[in-house]
Write a sequence for this structure.
């Protein structure tokens, strides 16, 4: 019997959490589509890392907030092995901006990338993923903290959590699970950007485990949701944060 090659699409896989997820899924036997927006070299590096560990992957560029590009991304991803089994939507941005009038453009930017992007990726995933497949989107544990300057970002991720739960209901009858994973502070470029050393140290201490998450901590949980052990977890937000929230 010939088994189909399971294919996973990971958005924002050129670095950070998406890269760790792509590498882990490749270890678990998926052919992985490494999506990125701007940095081809970083995406190629992710593909090389996967090939070096004996996996299979290819990089495809698409801005997740651009409908034409997302449509082409899914068409190209599906064309490789004729199927798509798993979509992990990790692409995202986190500009800091207080809720003051001059922050409107930062608000528009983060809603555009994080919320419109999630809507588009989830919508095309719903159309494209095989029955029995899995859809996972990244939210954030910072929703539970309500720190100053996180308003636009938290609003975008609250929207993602809403979309995930509704989509799980809309896919009734297809045996597809739809979940969100909400990391706490995790050691990636997105986390370090714009923070002083003192801020990094104080945020690191917020978890009773007194460390930042590593991208692999998040990838482990996503791999569980994507695998056989995750089959009864549906319409949930799974917080992965060492007790931060
Ligand atoms: N790190 C944390 O502490 C943390 C905590 C909670 C939640 N999260 C969430 O986890 C996810 C991954 O974050 P990360 O820390 O891994 O971030 P990261 O290291 O900054 O990586 C972001 C990735 O997203 C891609 N990307 C950005 N804008 C894009 C767009 N419009 N279209 C397609 N790809 C795009 C980037 O590719 P290019 O460079 O090519 O643009 C990159 O591959 C995000 O949704 C974030 O909100 C992170």
């Amino acid at each position: 019997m010939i088994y189909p090659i399971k294919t996973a699409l990971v958005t924002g896989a050129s670095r950070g959490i998406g890269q760790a997820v792509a590498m882990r899924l490749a270890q678990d036997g998926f052919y992985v589509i490494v999506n990125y927006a701007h940095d081809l070299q970083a995406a190629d590096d992710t593909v090389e890392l996967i090939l070096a560990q004996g996996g299979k992957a290819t990089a495809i560029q698409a801005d997740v907030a651009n409908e034409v590009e997302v449509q082409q991304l899914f068409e190209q991803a599906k064309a490789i092995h004729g199927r798509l089994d798993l979509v992990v939507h990790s692409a995202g941005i986190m500009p800091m901006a207080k809720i003051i009038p001059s922050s409107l453009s930062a608000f528009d930017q983060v809603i555009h990338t994080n919320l419109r992007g999630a809507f588009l990726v989830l919508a095309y995933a719903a159309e494209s993923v095989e029955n029995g497949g899995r859809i996972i989107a990244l939210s954030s544990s910072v929703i539970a903290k309500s720190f100053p300057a996180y308003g636009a970002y938290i609003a975008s991720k609250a929207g993602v959590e809403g979309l995930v739960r509704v989509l799980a209901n809309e896919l009734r009858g297809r045996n597809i699970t739809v979940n969100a994973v909400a990391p706490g502070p995790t050691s990636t470029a997105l986390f370090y950007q714009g923070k002083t050393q003192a801020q990094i140290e104080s945020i690191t201490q917020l978890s009773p485990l007194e460390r930042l998450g590593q991208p692999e901590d998040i990838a482990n949980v996503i791999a569980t949701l994507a695998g056989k052990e995750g089959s009864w977890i549906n319409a949930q937000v799974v917080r992965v944060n060492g007790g931060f929230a």
Q: What stands out?
A: The first helix runs from residue 16 to 27. The pocket of NAP is lined by residues 11-18, 35-39, 63-65, 90-94, 113, 117, 138, 140, 183, 185-186, 188-191 (CB under 6 Å). The longest strand covers residues 177-183.
